[in-house]
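Hi support team,

I'm filing this because I wasn't sure whether my run with zinc ion finished correctly. The job status page said complete, but I'd like someone to confirm that the output block is well-formed before I use it downstream. Pasting the exact inputs I used:
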Amino acid sequence: MKRSPWQRRIDRAHELISQYAFAAEILGFYIHVARFQGELQRKLRSPLPQESPGSSIHEELTPNELSRLTSEFESFLTLVEAHGPKTLADLSRQLSARDQDFWAELLKQNWSAHAPSGPQSFLALAFLQPYAELLRSQEVLRSEFQRYAVCPFCNRKPGLGVLRQMGDGAARSLICSFCLAEWEFRRIVCPGCGEENDQKLAVFTAEDFNYIRVECCDTCKTYLKTIDLTKNGRAEPVVDELASAPLDLWAQDRGYAKLQNNLLGM
Ligand SMILES: [Zn+2]
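And here is everything the job wrote out:
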């Protein structure tokens, strides 16, 4: 039976837990989140009869969409409270005490804001992510936007990169931190500032994760992790990006800021 993308990510998380003890906690949490996200996306796939046609990732959430999403948000908060790291669990407990109007506003704002602001945003975005991915998958890529380093669908910054085999070499794509769109992007260009001088673009790898490149820019001092699928075909980019948190500490110790945190806020 063909595994859904969610199941592939969950399976990969289990695999990485057995390999990297230090990542067990965050990946254990991720597995709960991914199960919820997969289930939510399955529910959202069947449109409500009264739903207005043409829902789009570019548009604000309609009142119908919002009430549908808001009704599912409480169970997400309960999940994070039970399984999340302490700061997120505490925050979820506080948010659980608020009412539906507050949740609706939180979801609405974060759907439209292009840069997350703090842990509350990350909770909202992690919850909204399966819906963003669903709407994006129903749209056609407007190719003229692909030269930019922001998502061609939802305008957010990429959360990671991937290298895929292309002829004799490898081509780089970027993956949206929110809707998980993937678009090709030239290899020797910083997605943070457009720097093209390879003297300024350092690439680091560590023995533990020899298939993950930490791509740093000395001009804007940002970095992005790129998963080299030509070296590790088993990797699920989003999950392997999460598991390789030690590389983030390494880059941040050297003064680089992550271009865009992942949906667990890391
Ligand atoms: Zn996007």
